[in-house]
């Protein structure tokens, strides 16, 4: 399984997306309410760049005469012909059992702490070179795509 760093969590804010190339595939990574999802950037209808489409919600089941809109930010609409897919599962809205887009696992990991070394020039009193180290931390989590 391939492991690819997509970026940091601040690069893909809630409601945002980032399209990346990984192992010869174009993949869209989405932040839906703080959880990251990834799907192939190709509509199964005619190969449109699906992940460049509009992210929206949908009308939910409701009693007659009522309209309930929900799942905001969870549905992607193909930019060419309007086919809609669930970002969370990759399944199409109109036929979820037969038409779907490949999805990939995404995790957020905290990078390991690092140490920076600074070489100090030797002084007249000391003939040896000193190396001073300083701890470095990265506060932002890394978004990892697993293929």
Q: How would you characterize this protein structure?
A:
- The chain has 147 residues and is mainly β.
- The chain has one domain (3-111, 141-146): Rieske Iron-sulfur Protein.
- 0% of the residues lie in helices and 49% in strands.
- A six-stranded antiparallel β-sheet has the order 1-11-8-4-3-2, with no helix packed on it. Strands 5-6-7 form a three-stranded antiparallel β-sheet, with no helix packed on it. It has a two-stranded antiparallel sheet with strand order 9-10.
- The chain is elongated, with a radius of gyration of 23 Å.
- It starts with a strand and ends with a strand.
- 20% of the residues are buried.
- This is Rieske (2Fe-2S) protein.
- Keywords: 2Fe-2S, Iron, Iron-sulfur, Metal-binding.
- Residues 3-115 form the Rieske domain.
How far apart are the first and last residues' alpha carbons, in Å? 5 Å
Predict the CATH topology. Rieske Iron-sulfur Protein
Structural class by SSE content: mainly beta
Portion in helices: under 10%
| CATH top-level class | Mainly Beta
Radius of gyration over all CA atoms, rounded: 23 Å
Unreliable segments of 5+ consecutive residues: none
Q: Which word captures the global form?
A: elongated
**Mind describing the biggest β-sheet?**
6 strands, antiparallel
Q: What's the average pLDDT? A: 87
Distinct helical segment count: 0
CATH homologous superfamily designation = Rieske [2Fe-2S] iron-sulphur domain
Strand order of the largest sheet: 1-11-8-4-3-2
CATH architecture descriptor: 3-layer Sandwich
